[in-house]
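Reference record
================
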Amino acid sequence: MTPLALIDNLEHLPNPFTQFDGIATHLAKNTLQLKKPEYQRDLQLALCFIYSYNGSQATFNSYRREVERLLLWSWNIANCPSTQLRRDQIEEFIHFCVAPPENWIGTKNVARFKLHMGERVANKEWRPFVAHVSKLEFKNGSTPQTKQHSLSQAAIRATFSILSSYYGFLLQEDAVQQNPVALIRQKSKFVKKEITRKQVRRISNLQWDYVIETAEILAEEDPVHHERTLFIMNALLGMYLRISELVADERSAPVMGDFIKDADGHWWFKVLSKGNKERLIAVSDDMLNALIRYRRFRDLPMLPTIAENTPLVPKNRGQGAMTSSRQIRNIVQLCFDNAHQRMCEDGMSADADDLRVATVHWLRHTGISEDVKTRPKEHVREDAGHSSMATTDKYIDTEYRERHASGRKKTLRPQ
């Protein structure tokens, strides 16, 4: 059978610590297992674990996805609560996730629940897994097919990590006697060992020149819509920002007052990053000039004032700050697509190829990669918000350059 969703979006999910009975009663209408106390307890523990991550929408969604899949498999395939699963059954579950049956796979993202006659009901079109095609394949007319579903190595690692945390929580709640995920010794049969240091995905300096020129052209032609585009592009590269650090969410709402001038007259940008950690980013002279241009367009004083609450990136329509990360992606994609077209028209099709597959996050990688060439890596690490120097080190390409330079001298006819 095709399973129905169990866990609604955070904004529609009552507090399971205090309102679980209502949640269970509501779900039991369509989920037969919830007629039994052991399954109700299983769901309650899972909900309490996931709800503990309500401080971040993205983290909540990730943990919900993995734990919900486990519950659905455990209840429908293993026919027992997740608290009773053994190590070998967890391995079966991982194998299942790698190759789920087609009726568990969707070809588009749909809401888990929808509103029907004033009540939140499970959406029958939702599936636990979703098949995707790459951005380039989609542009070329390909559509997702259920038979093409596959889990990336990163997704499998995330499954192990999150489920291990889940069973760690169950141990603390005395719901299990051991962590079956931690007992799996040979994870290598599921997760391949990666090369020591992967190359960073970034766009070239030439591609960036075309991208930012494209944003400037758009701003000149239609300032009402694209002065904001130009500022977003500069901020993403110039301050290594993630999408989540530009849009307003339940954790924070970036405002102009987050630009701060210290006692020496230096400007910094305060941002709430991953793990709810605040960091200060050194604002370059070019970035400050980009801010000044943007503020002038918005009829604001040249520079922000202390505690200014003006939204950093406002909506195009309506009041308040932009809350849609998808809108940021669309803005960046517009610049990438137009820049790619301009490069092709200038006879540089081969140099433009990366722009067809680049994502927003590549701009962060590009900014860090360039800065680490000239700035102390400790400074770049602080601005980027990396938890360890090892993360910053992967942006240093000197080792690759030297290794390839020596490799180019090899001959096919050794002396």
Q: What stands out?
A: The mean pLDDT is 88.
